[in-house]
Amino acid sequence: MEAKEVNITYETLFELLKREKDTADLQKLELSFFDNFVEYLNEKKDMLNRDDTLFSYDEKKKVEKQIDNARRLIKEIYERREKKILNIALIKSRTKSHVLDISSLLDNEKKFLGDIEKVLNAYRENVIYSVMEGKPVLQVKHQEKVAKEEINAANDAEEETKSTKLVRFLYSVPKFVGTELEEYGPFAEEDIANLPLEIADLLIGKGKVEEIKEN
Question: pTM for the whole thing?
Fold first, then answer.
C-alpha cells in the first residue's frame, strides 16, 4: 500500500503510534517523515520565540506542552519501529532469508537493519558456528561495536517499557509525588507520559488517564 502524505500534528503522531503498537508489521511512512517532524517542531519553537503581545502566557504554556508531547510520541514511535527492525534482523540472520519485506523501512532504518544484521552474523559465525565445528570462540571484530551498542540500548528501552505504562491524560492533573518521592507533572488534558506501573494503574483506576495499549 502506498504511503499517504503525512501532515504532522499531535493527532497524526498519536494515530501513528497507535497503529505501530497495534500491528506486528512496520507501517509505511512517508520517506520525509522525520524531516516533517523537525519542521513541525521548529514551527512550534518559532511560536515560542516570536515577539507577539497577543501570545498569552497560557498559550505559550500550551505550545510548550505540545512540544513535550510531540517529543514523547516521536520517541515512542521510533522505539517501536526499532524493536521490530531488531526482530527482522534476527530472522534474517538465523534463516539467511532474503525474501522478507523491508519496503516499509525508511532509508536510515535500512542502514540500521544492515548494521545489526552484520553484528548478529559476526557473533553467530565466531561463536556458535565455531563451537559446533569444535573450534575455539573467536574475537568479534571491533568495528561491530557501534551496532552492538544499539542492540543493548534497544534491550534497555524494552526493559524500561515493561516497568512503565504509556498513558494519555483524560483530565488535568496537578503535580504529585510518587512512591520514591519523585515528582510528576503537572499534566494537562491530552498529555502523554510513561509512568511507573503502580502510579499508572492508580490513575487509570481513578479515570484520570487511559493506557495506550499494545495488542
Answer: 0.66
